Amino acid sequence: MLKEERQHLILDKIKLNRKVLSADLSIELQVSEDTIRRDLNELSAKGLIKKVHGGALPVDTKAPSYEERKFSNLKEKNNIAKKAVSLIKNGQVIIMSGSTTNLQLAKIIPSDINATIYTYSLPIALQLTEHPSIEIIFIGGKLNKPAQVTVGLDVVSSISQLRADLCFMGTGGINVENGMTEPNWEVSHIKKCMIEASEKVIVLCTNNKINEVKRYPVTPIIKINTLITDLNSKNEIFIPFKEKGVKIL
């Protein structure tokens, strides 16, 4: 593979995933880590990326769009969805947040499942219209266009009146000390209401969200029943979570 072609691939991966790791690129592109470091140094010198220890980030600070997030870490999100779908049973009332991992879950709910799903996510509601026996209740409010979810007092009021068996939610970050956190205040408030309205709280997150901390707190770790990630549940990173009573899938 030519250097120019390799660097174009690196730029594409940064644009899609919002970060790359030198070790991962070395394996995927079948070149040495020294070669990857030289590529990253050149791209950084041209102002095309921001080089950091162990990898690189995009130079812009703009949050990725919903479409960009929808296709990032897709393999990991599919693995998480396959674990989560086993928790859905006939007759349940479920609340789903607007995460792109939840979107993958919505795509694979078995056709013979009969359940009621509340969501404030426009893409998830539309995806569930393809399911033959799911009752969909879309929670309306002010539309946050970049995230494609509704927000505001109407959403909070509607959720606070629900009683759900499960809530499936994504997260901006999660660790034992800070619990679950979000970068957006309105979303953090909605998720607090989801937790209060639900019998069991299921957090779906890719491994890059583990031990991340965002600005706004949602809930302490002890209020989370199950954490589902793309990692093996026996990974030592989960030891402190298990000590707090969180089930890992």
UniProtKB/TrEMBL annotation:
Residues 3-58 form the HTH deoR-type domain. GO terms for molecular function: DNA binding; DNA-binding transcription factor activity. SMART domains: DeoRC (SM01134), HTH_DEOR (SM00420). It holds the Pfam family HTH_DeoR. The keyword Ribonucleoprotein does not apply. PROSITE patterns: HTH_DEOR_1, HTH_DEOR_2. It comes from the Bacteria. Keywords: DNA-binding, Transcription, Transcription regulation. Gene3D superfamilies: 3.40.50.1360, Winged helix-like DNA-binding domain superfamily/Winged helix DNA-binding domain. InterPro entries: Carb_Metab_HTH_regulators, DeoR-like_C, DeoR_HTH, NagB/RpiA_transferase-like, Tscrpt_reg_HTH_DeoR_CS, WH-like_DNA-bd_sf, WH_DNA-bd_sf. This is DeoR/GlpR transcriptional regulator. The lineage of its organism: Bacteria, Pseudomonadati, Bacteroidota, Flavobacteriia, Flavobacteriales.
